[in-house]
Design goal:
This protein has helices at residues 10-30, 49-55, 59-62, 77-87, 134-169, 175-196, 210-222, 238-257, 291-294, 299-312, 333-336; strands at 34-39, 44-47, 92-100, 106-117, 123-132, 208-209, 226-231, 235-236, 267-275, 278-286, 315-321, 324-332. The protein has 339 residues and is an alpha+beta fold. The radius of gyration is 34 Å and the shape is rod-shaped. The strands form 3 sheets. A 5-stranded antiparallel β-sheet has the order 2-1-5-4-3, sandwiched between helices. A 5-stranded mixed β-sheet has the order 7-9-10-12-11. It folds into 2 domains: 10-132, Beta-Lactamase, CATH 3.30.450; 137-336, 2-Layer Sandwich (Heat Shock Protein 90). Helix 6 (175-196) runs antiparallel to helix 8.
């Protein structure tokens, strides 16, 4: 094994020792991590510039003070356990915890703690390397939030599909008719969902225009029918998207079966406008209608009334005349509009 020759005299050994100490001191001083030593009584012995940046105390303020000044009261039991493990000679690796800065704010850190021994091998203290893991913690929180939102959206989608099947099954007589109708509805649902979710490979911000949402839902039902939109456009909040889409599906379904979208000379006008803290959507069908039959509240109508009340803070009012039907959807603007 090769070795470097520094000479055998005492002065050379001293020079080597000095150079190594300077080298180690330079590493500690230039480290981005906080490097601290303490004795077994928990008194800080050394404090590098990384510790100054992380915790806000200068070396003059920190050295000689108890390490407990960095530990929130509810976590001070950790220090008792750490000292106990150090006395047994254990090294603690990547222990994630929270510590307190000079100004009182808390910072998440990862600690690696090693026992420090004297020349006789006795443990006399500990060295701590503390790394700020704020960004890692925030990334994990964002990931958990994303997963929760994904579960929420998937659950909403299944609920909507189940509701659509129930509603559509009451409008058809054969399985093939149900399959055809569901295909159209699911295509519209897919388009509405696409509008609500940002494409990571594209430039979409993930916001959904109310006008685009109405277009995407009505188009599969309208065909060549006359549809006019007079919409004060807003961005729809993600949580409001599916409930509102479901209401629009129900209106479209009824219009295609009984009203304007099922009659060659029928027409549909959708007016949407803001009124103070409310947002009103007027669905106006021009068609031949029996007012007596229009007043019946079927399953789909009841379901939509419930969704509007629970998810959008609103109500739906309907009027039926021989010349057509009008539905006014009165919504809470704060629940409907994206922040």
């Amino acid at each position: 094994m090769s070795r470097l020759a520094f000479g055998d005299d005492a002065s050379s050994q001293i020079d080597i020792s000095i150079n190594l100490n300077e080298y180690l001191a330079a590493i500690i001083d230039s480290s981005d991590d906080a490097i601290i030593t303490k004795n077994l009584d928990g008194i800080i012995q050394t404090w590098n510039p990384g510790a100054e940046r992380l915790f806000g105390y200068s070396a003059l303020e920190a050295v000689g003070q108890p390490i407990l000044m960095l530990i929130p009261e509810e976590r001070q039991h950790e220090e008792v356990d750490i000292i106990s493990r150090l006395r047994r000679g254990e090294r603690i690796r990547h222990f994630e915890t929270v510590r307190r800065r000079k100004g009182g704010s808390l910072v998440p850190i990862s600690l690696t703690i090693s026992p420090v021994r004297n020349s006789s091998g006795e443990i006399i203290g500990a060295s701590k390397i503390a790394r700020d893991i704020t960004h890692q913690v925030e990334a994990a929180e964002r990931q958990n939030l994303l997963l929760a939102e994904m579960r929420h959206r998937i659950g909403n989608c299944f609920a909507v599909v189940g509701s659509l099947i129930s509603v559509n099954a009451r409008q058809v007589e054969t399985a093939s008719e149900l399959a055809s109708l569901m295909q159209k509805r699911l295509t519209a649902l897919s388009e509405a969902h696409r509008l609500a979710v940002a494409d990571p490979a594209g430039d979409s911000t993930g916001s959904t225009s109310l006008r685009d949402l109405i277009d995407s839902v009505v188009a599969p039902f309208a065909g060549n029918q006359a549809v006019e939109l007079d919409v004060e456009d807003i961005s729809v909040a993600p949580d409001a998207l599916m409930p509102l889409a479901l209401v629009l599906y129900e209106l479209c379904t009824n219009a295609a079966k009984y009203g304007a979208l099922g009659q060659s000379d029928g027409g549909l006008l959708i007016v949407a406008r803001r009124e103070g803290e409310r947002f009103l959507i007027d669905w106006q069908e021009r068609c031949r209608l029996d007012p007596q039959e229009g007043g019946h509240k079927g399953f789909g109508t009841q379901m939509c009334d419930s969704v509007v009340k629970s998810s959008l803070g609103g109500v739906v009012a309907r009027t039926f005349e021989a010349s057509g039907m009008t539905a006014t959807i009165d919504l809470d603007l704060h629940l409907l509009q994206a922040k």
